[in-house]
Design goal:
Blueprint (H helix, E strand, L loop, with lengths): L10 H7 L1 H12 L8 E5 L5 H8 L5 E6 L2 H10 L7 E5 L11 E7 L8 H11 E12 L5 H11 L5 H4 L11 H10 L3 E9 L2 E2 L3 H12 L1 H5 L4 H16 L6 E2 L2 E8 L3
Parallel strand pairs: 1-2, 1-4, 2-3, 4-5
Antiparallel strand pairs: 5-9, 6-9, 7-8
Helix pairs in contact: 2-3, 5-8, 9-11
The structure holds S-adenosylmethionine.
S-adenosylmethionine binds next to helix 2 and helix 3.
Length: 264
């Protein structure tokens, strides 16, 4: 059972191509001030590339790495095998988080914008933390990927694609810094700090651009199209538009940083 629309990922492709997400995530992890013995939740851990970095900072601690996608968790269990019982993998929807008063901290990178109900998300995260515990996270926000989204939406409204996109809604929630701060406070977090930053990303080639966009950004858009021929046609138009950009094959990413604490 899940209340979220998005379940599966191509985790092999994500593991191989997620250098941008990993570089943003390393900056988020560098903000943590850890003792080294905490119990931390990695919320939306993906294939565990950043979970491994987190575990390196917790020599006497443990991590619960949770994600909705079985594929992601399968890849994560291979990638994190060397950490043994220091890490536990949990399949779960962030909108149905079962933990109460369990964690000293929660880290999350590149995941919250896939969750469409932020009021419930932050209430769940707040409930999962012990008094005095912290949340340090980053996700897409503000005008994230506006250029690509406008192109995909415009293309989806033209023939032959329009027939298959009737009623389709983008699977993301991109909040701004002020909006997400209010949301965190309503959930009970204090010492809330939020900010938004550009993270323009340039991919190496047309091939990498198409594989990245297809598997990491527009996978749910493409699921609407009933044949591989139509999916390839859709991506070919977006690839041609991206080739004409300056610089070519660039993605107009924006990241939303969020942090807060549960009162003592
Ligand atoms: C772009 S990946 C980020 C993975 C990793 N944190 C990183 O930065 O590389 C987003 C992850 O969020 C997970 N996710 C999306 N919605 C979720 C939900 N409602 N509950 C749990 N995980 C979710 C996806 O399955 C995916 O693994």
């Amino acid at each position: 059972m899940t209340d979220s629309p998005h379940r599966e990922w191509n985790s092999d492709v994500y593991h191989r191509l997620s250098a941008p997400q990993v570089s943003w995530g390393k900056k988020v992890l560098s903000r943590l001030r850890l003792r080294g013995d905490e119990l931390v939740l990695d919320a939306g851990c993906g294939t565990g590339r950043l979970t491994a970095d987190l575990l390196e900072s917790l020599p006497r601690g443990r991590v619960i790495a949770m994600d909705l996608s079985e594929n992601m968790l399968r890849s994560a269990s291979e990638h994190l095998a060397r950490y043994g019982c220091q890490v536990r993998l949990v399949a779960c929807d962030l909108l149905q988080l079962p933990f109460e008063g369990a964690f000293d901290g929660i880290v999350s990178t590149a995941a919250f914008h896939w969750v469409l109900d932020h009021e419930r998300l932050f209430a769940n995260l707040h409930r999962a933390l012990v008094p005095g515990a912290w949340l340090e996270a980053q996700c897409g926000g503000g005008p994230n990927l506006e250029r690509l989204r406008e192109r995909a939406n415009a293309l989806g409204a033209t023939r032959p694609f329009n027939h298959f996109f009737a009623g389709f809604r983008e699977p993301w929630l991109f909040q701004d810094a002020a909006g997400v701060a209010e949301c965190l406070r309503r959930a009970g977090f204090v010492d809330v700090e939020t900010s938004i930053e550009p993270a323009m990303t340039i991919l190496d080639s047309a091939k990498e651009y198409t594989e990245f966009v297809r598997n990491i950004i527009l996978q749910l858009h493409l699921e609407n199209l009933p044949s591989e021929r139509l999916r390839a046609e859709f991506m070919a138009v977006l690839q041609e538009q991206a080739a004409a950009d300056d610089p070519p094959f660039s993605l107009d990413y924006w990241r939303l940083n969020l942090r807060g604490r549960v009162p003592e």
